[in-house]
Specification:
Two copies of one chain form a homodimer. Chain A is an alpha+beta fold and 77 residues long. Chain A is built from two helices and three strands. The longest helix of chain A has 13 residues. The model of chain A has no long low-confidence stretch (mean pLDDT 96).
């Protein structure tokens, strides 16, 4: 089955990459953007018969997210 | 208002980063993962009174996505 994992910075954690994107958009003349924060997205194919929620939680805790500064969300589609 | 933009590789485009993550998960003993594709996520704050959909479409076309190899999706929250 398919699942989607999103990893985002916790609020309060500085995001220089997002700031750079915001500046670049302003430089390109794209008006009306007040803030950008960048995260990561993983589209994952999980084998049938596996507990997707538990497997992906383990994958996030051990590899995909740095839980000190990042939150993650698992959605089984 | 808040919006979320996701940028993913088009199907058929190789994703070596996703393959590396898949291999790393296998190496860590996380079983049951058949495939990983990595994308990008942008959480964007759009000023009030701005056409968020149109502004973000322009941002994607001009900066956030490489439309030759990537698809993007805009969700106004």
């Amino acid at each position: 089955m398919k699942a989607r994992v999103t990893v985002t910075l916790k609020s309060g954690v500085l995001d220089p990459q997002g700031k750079a994107i915001e500046g670049a958009l302003r430089g390109l003349g794209v008006a009306g953007i007040d803030g950008v924060r960048q995260g990561k997205l993983f589209e994952i194919e999980v084998a049938d018969g596996v507990d997707a929620e538990a497997t992906l939680k383990e994958a996030c805790e051990r590899l995909l997210a740095n839980t000190v500064v990042e939150n993650y969300r698992v959605e089984v589609l």
